[in-house]
Fold:
Amino acid sequence: MTENSKVILAVLDGLNYQTARDCMGHLQALCAEGTGCLYKLQSELPSMSRPLYECLLTGVKPVHSGVVHNKVVRLSRCQSIFSLARAQGRVTAASAYHWVSELYNHAPFDLVQDRIVNDESKNIQHGVFYQWDDYPDEAVIADGEMLRRRYNPDFLLIHPMNIDDTGHHFGVDSAQYRNKTRSVDIYLSYYLQDWLDAGYQVIITADHGMNNDGTHGGILECERAVPCYVFGSAFSKKADVSFPQTAMCGLVCELLGLEHQKELPQGVLHD
Structure:
């Protein structure tokens, strides 16, 4: 088990690997300097949002979790990063789409009751949740930074939705989709160095990609190939490493120093 670290996991909804590589200039610059490393992951199936939130945060494939489509509205039945962290005395927080709240805090989502959360008994103890796909990414990331500064969480999830929303309107091979990705790269640049200076290990990934039909869910490369950027002193930054999306949960748990039985990727962390 690694030394205890704090972790920020940013899930950029609907971001295709190639678009991230081509358009996220700040993140690519940090990788070129050796501060970070970009890995290519393959999303589990179906390449849909709610099933893959559950996959990323529990390490369980959709076919095994039972969250097999976006209309499965219930609490998760699996151990998650949030539940493991809370049970072991860590502070959890999320600035995220309301489906995350439905999986780990309360279902169905009640806009008035569940939007702003400060409750140490919940899996996500401090949260700002939204239910609008066009809720600005800049606001989601700023909400996450507010939670970080105010509550100093051990684990913080930041989950903006506009790249996915834009892809649904214009498709993956569009100026709008690429430009939205460039915008998120800029928003992340506002805070990323502060996160690293505060001792956080930072992972920036996506749930799934996007196709030219403005949808996702199947097996096309553009739908399944997603980026995984890692930044921080705990990472080996070895370029020849590969690991499945199901290992994200175990990776975060290991960084947090949690007791867990989740799948752990090999070679991603320093020996």
Remarks:
- The mean pLDDT is 98.
- The chain has one domain: 6-256.
- Strands lie at 6-11, 36-42, 92-97, 116-118, 126-130, 155-158, 200-205, 225-231.
